[in-house]
Amino acid sequence: TGDAAAGAPAAGVADPVAAAGELLAAIDADGIDPRGTVEEALAAAELSRAAGAVALPFPLAQQLSRRDGELFAVVGSLADAPLIVDHADRVASVVALDGRTAPIVSRDPLDGKLSRFTAAVTVAGGGATDAIPLTDVALQLDLQAAYVIGALESAVALTVEHTSQRRQFGRPLSSFQALRFQVVEASLACRGALQLLRFTLWRLHEAPADALADGLGLRLQMQEAAKRVLQVAHQLHGAMGFANEHDLPFLTRGIQPALRLPLDYEATTDALLQHVDLTGFETLYGRFTPGVPAPTPTAPV
After folding, report:
1. pTM, rounded to two decimals
2. Which domains does the chain carry?
3. How far is CA 47 from the centre of its chain?
4. Rounded to whole angstroms, what are the CA distances from 243 to 2, 17, 238, 254?
């Protein structure tokens, strides 16, 4: 993962993004159509997950969810200022959560340590020029979540390896029950997010009307899992978890744009609640419909 994950050229690689693109082209990643069938959607998610596991420096979610050959990036709202987009040099337009689109006319790279490929973009002065289905917005959110989940799984694997090899008081760290519990909690957070990802992609095809609510719910779960996994991983690695000689900090840096863009945890929560209030949501106990009062319980006769 190393230098490529951080965006710095690895040994012998002048442009890691271009190299990643060539690798994906070699395996015909563009041949996957996640809109076609559930199976292809799951295949796209597995590819995104594998890319996240090595913090591949490439906008794979945007590539797999492209429309008419052009890449777009989801943003919270076209009215946001500034509009921040990851890998903006490869993206032609931005799409708000309501499906409205606007072409990008200029890009100002930020080149930050936690956002190597992000840029502040300016869209056409007239604002929205078109609208796309919300299922396409949801698909990109779903694939972005898959990328992060892959990175979290790698972080858990590194933590398991470290706690098994590192010794304290003459015993491996993994022999301490409290530390084992933390690793198990992190692993369960990953597995829960992965299962929700697969269910969400199934729902994308089976219940497209709820795709955006499902996608925002998945994003929220992914962000919660990331908080727990990275907290445990860095705590148990100690200072080593922040050293550039180790893979963990590169994984952590590599997924920061995906964790924060298009919405951070608080903004994702607000967007999900607002969307559910407007459109309703399928629950385990039937459909929640906005504006319809809950039935009044009656006393048994």
Report:
1. 0.86
2. 1-68+133-282 (1.20.140.10)
3. 13
4. 11, 23, 10, 15
